[in-house]
C-alpha cells in the first residue's frame, strides 16, 4: 500500500485512502 500512501499525499490528498484512483 505504499503507492496509495504516495498518491494520497501527492495527487489525491482530498480523496480517502479507500479511493487511491
Low-confidence stretches: none
Report the order of strands and helices: H
Total count of strands:
0
Quaternary organisation of the protein chains:
single chain
Shape descriptor reads globular
Task: Calculate Rg over CA atoms.
Answer: 7 Å
Number of helices: 1
The amount of helix comes to 40-55%
What composes the largest sheet?
none
Ends distance: 13 Å
Strand content bin: under 5%
Structural class: mainly alpha
Kindly state the mean pLDDT as a whole number?
58
Description:
With 21 residues, this protein is mainly α. It contains one helix and no strands. The chain has one helix at 2-10. The longest helix has 9 residues, at 2-10. The two termini are 13 Å apart. The model has no long low-confidence stretch (mean pLDDT 58).
Sum up the structure in keywords.
1 helix; globular; single chain; 21 residues; mainly alpha
Concise summary:
The protein has 21 residues and is mainly α.
Mind sketching the topology for me?
Layout: H1 2-10
Amino acid at each position: 500500500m505504499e503507492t496509495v500512501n504516495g498518491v494520497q499525499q501527492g495527487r489525491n490528498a482530498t480523496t480517502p485512502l479507500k479511493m487511491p484512483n
